[in-house]
Amino acid sequence: MINLKILCSGTPTPSDVRWGSAYALKMGAEWFMFDCGPAATYKLIKSKISPLDISNLFFTHHHSDHDADYACFLLTRFDQSIGKEKELNVYGPPPTKELTDKLIGENDGAYWHDFVARTKHPLSLWAYQERGGKLPRPIPKVNSYNINPGIVSSGKDWEITSARVEHVQPYLDSLAYRVDYSEGSIVFSGDTKPCQALIDLSANADVLVMECIRLENEMKNNATSLSETSALQAGKMAEEANVKLLVLTHQAHYLDSVKDDVLKEVKTNYKGGVIWADELMTVNF
Ligand SMILES: [Zn+2]
Fold first, then answer.
1. For residues 43 and 207, what is the distance between their CA atoms, to the nearest angstrom?
2. Ligand 1 center to residue 105 CA distance, Å?
3. 249 C-alpha vs ligand 1 centroid, how far in Å?
4. 76: CA distance to ligand 1 center in Å?
C-alpha cells in the first residue's frame, strides 16, 4: 500500500484551510516528500511524521509557495537529529542546489551560525545527548541536486522519474514527478498548463495529484491559461492519461466555495475517481 499525505494544498495566497504545496508519500517504511511550501514542516508534525523520517525531498519548481518552508524543514531536521538518521537527498530543477548552499552552505550559508552553535554550545550538546545522540555532534549531510527530466532516483522496489512541464519558463524551470512502486504508481503534476509531457508521464498511473486552480471560464482571455490548469483541463488530462484516481489540489483560496461546480467541470471529461484534496488528508491506494 502507498500512503499519500496532503500537507499543503493551496496557492501563494494564504487561507485558513489551504496554503502552498507539499505532500508526503509513504512506501514501505520510507517517507518521501514533494515540495515544501509554507508551514509544511508544521503540517508534517501535525500528521505525526518526523522530518527525520524523510530522506528524499523533490521540488517541482522554486516558486515560494513550493519551497518557502525549506529552511524550516532543514533546520528542524538538524535540530531533532540524533546522528543516526539517513542523509537527506534533495532533488529539483535549478536553483535547488544553489538555494541549499545559500541556506546551509559551510561558512557562507545564511543559517550556518545555527549549525555552529548547536554543535558547540553545551546546551545544545546536552539536548542532543538527551535525545540519544553520541558526541561529537555531527553536522548532517545534505546532498542537493539540480536535475533534468528522466530517472531521478530509485530504490529496491521504487523508481522516480521526472518530466518537464510548462509553467513560468524561462524564469523558473518546472518538473512533474512519477513514482513507480511495486504496489502502485502516482504522479505529482507540480504547477503547469495542460501539456503532453504530463499526459505521457501520467499514462495509466493509479493516482494523479493535479493542480486545479480555477474554473475554465475564469481563465479565458487572461495570463493564467498560459501557466496553470483549470478544472475542465485537469479532467481532460486525467482522462487522456487514463489515470484511475485524480486528486485535485493547488486550488485557488476561494475555490472551496464553488467546489460542486469544480467537480462538475472535472467530471465533464473524466470518468475515473476524484478526490478534493484537503490539508492533512490521507489517501491510501
Ligand atoms: Zn504554486
1. 22
2. 26
3. 10
4. 23
Euclidean distance between CA atoms 52 and 76, whole angstroms: 9
| CATH class in words for 2-284 | alpha beta
Per the CB < 8 A criterion, the answer to whether 228 and 219 are in contact is: yes
- How far is the centre of ligand 1, averaged over its atoms, from the C-alpha of 81 (Å)? 30
Which parts of the chain sit beneath pLDDT 70?
Answer: none
Digit-coded pLDDT (tens) for 85-98: 999 999 999 999 99
Give pLDDT tens digits for 195-222. 999 999 999 999 999 999 999 999 988 9
Rg (CA), the chain: 19
- Nine-digit cell string for 281: 488528508
Cβ atoms of 158 and 181 closer than 8 Å: yes
Residue 10 Cα to ligand 1 midpoint, Å, equals 8
Distance of CA 43 to the CA centre of its chain: 12
**In the chain, domain spans:** 2-284
The predicted model scores a pTM of 0.96
> Angle at the Cα of 185 (from 243 to 245), degrees rounded to 5?
35
